[in-house]
Amino acid sequence: MSIVDVTTADWYVDFAEREARGVSPTYERLSLAVSRDDHLLTLLDSLPRGKRQPNLLFGVVRLLGGPVDDPAAFHDYAVAHWPAIEAEMRVRATQTNEIGRSAVLLPVLAALPQPLALLEVGASAGLNLYPDRYAYRYGDHRVGTGEPVVECAATGLTAPTRVPEVVWRAGLDLNPLDVTDPADVAWLDALVWPEHGHRRARLRTAAAVAAADPPLLVRGDLVDDLPALAARAPANATLVVFHTSVLYQVPPPRRDAFVGLVRGLPGHWVAVEAPGVLPYPDIPQPPAEALHNVLALDETPLAWTRGHGQAMVWFGQGL
User: Fold this and answer.
1) The domain defined by 99-314 carries CATH number 1.25.40
2) pTM
């Protein structure tokens, strides 16, 4: 769904029905309640359109210590504390650093010429820059020996037999987060959905991996600052520019400029975005009505993936 084409109420209904349903009963219930709450909708509509999204609102309320389990209590808290909520929503963005997405990236990364120089656009704290340090389980098939173990229900996939060799890792973000800063970690934690204790545990383990060997994180714009950062990658490694669920936050003209830029960079481009954000012709229908993203390598679509990397359906013809 394009956020420029719908009302705020419709956006919350869509989030409830296509993203939270079957994944977070708390957020499904809460998002539907907000979609019918004229007072909260009026408050949300005072924000720039890109700042009205459910994940941002719910994450900010959780960060501030507010309730999300009960819609009535959420309403009362949000109305009473709206100035503080509004201030946070205006300066923050959803920077969910979900390492489950490394499981959908791994089949592509493992198949590229090694070693790799990874450059993540919209990197948040850079936790997806460590696909070589984690272990993965696709059904009964396990890859890697690290921690945490990332599980993915994969259909139609020939599971990779190795993790990639990464010799350089860098991230670009308008506001990079530091896993050694308790305030930044608190924001990452607030973005994890309430019932997802396994994701919260994985976040802590992955944060320890990053803290022990910090990546190069650069504060910058995905168009203006990408070429200079890409030029810092070692020449003897395969450059891979990648991003997951990032471009929906970028205005379409800027998104188009990024696509034109990344096409001209050396190496490879791996994207995991919603089909309305990066459209591809002639792809199969998604496996269900729930929101799925498309995994693509150099603009060739390969698989449908769920938002947190918990599942993927491979339809590509190989790498």
Assistant:
1) no
2) 0.89
